[in-house]
Amino acid sequence: MLNKENSYNVYICGVGGQGIIKTSVIIGEAAMNEGYDVVMSEIHGMSQRGGVVSTELRIGGYKSSIIEKFKSDIILAFEPSEAVRALDKANKNTKIIFNTSPIIPSTLNQFNQVYPSVNSITESLNENYDSVYPVEGEKLAIESGSILSLNMVLLGAAIANDTFPLSKKSIIESMKNNLNSKFHNMNLNAIEKGYNIVKSS
């Protein structure tokens, strides 16, 4: 149980257009509805489609809006290389959930760089962290009805972790408050798919 002396730290990262900010808003509203204090940091990077985006949420007691190095309880990465970029926020016990579908920057070719394989990223994370959950987010989102539900797949995966402080019920209620009603069933399916993937792993 969170109190004034501790917090649950959520770091969310990816690229613009993946629904990262909306995911943060849904988590934040759910936390407030459960009676917690919550703060979300400013957005880092460029929020337009294709630019790197990250948000930081602290639920419960906190001294600042910025998550200190190695203090994230969970990292939710919408893109594999962004999971790697976020590791300065992780410790061995951090839950790391990441979408396995890469978005390869066009600049790599300009600088003769090669995007690492997702398998190598996964292997490296598993070697160094205890709780790593690769999720075929795009595949599950499409199965739910649209790739646009990717963020809800990953959110479902996040709330499936035993340490996540918010209930599935409050997350779903917040989702319905923040997303268009005609997409509620699709997003509910996406949440359930992400949730079940982690629960069955």
From TrEMBL:
Report whether Oxidoreductase shows up as a keyword of the record: yes
Report the EC code(s) recorded for this entry: 1.2.7.8
Query: What's this protein's function?
Result: Catalyzes the ferredoxin-dependent oxidative decarboxylation of arylpyruvates.
Its quaternary organisation is: Heterodimer of the IorA and IorB subunits.
| Catalytic reaction equation(s) | indole-3-pyruvate + 2 oxidized [2Fe-2S]-[ferredoxin] + CoA = (indol-3-yl)acetyl-CoA + 2 reduced [2Fe-2S]-[ferredoxin] + CO2 + H(+)
Source species, domain of life: Archaea
One Pfam family this sequence matches: POR
Instruction: List the protein's name.
Output: Indolepyruvate ferredoxin oxidoreductase subunit beta
What sequence ranges are listed for the domain Pyruvate/ketoisovalerate oxidoreductase catalytic? 16-196
Top EC class of this enzyme: oxidoreductase
Please verify whether the record's keywords include Oxidoreductase.
Answer: yes
SUPFAM superfamilies, from UniProt? Pyruvate-ferredoxin oxidoreductase, PFOR, domain III
Q: Name one GO molecular function term.
A: indolepyruvate ferredoxin oxidoreductase activity
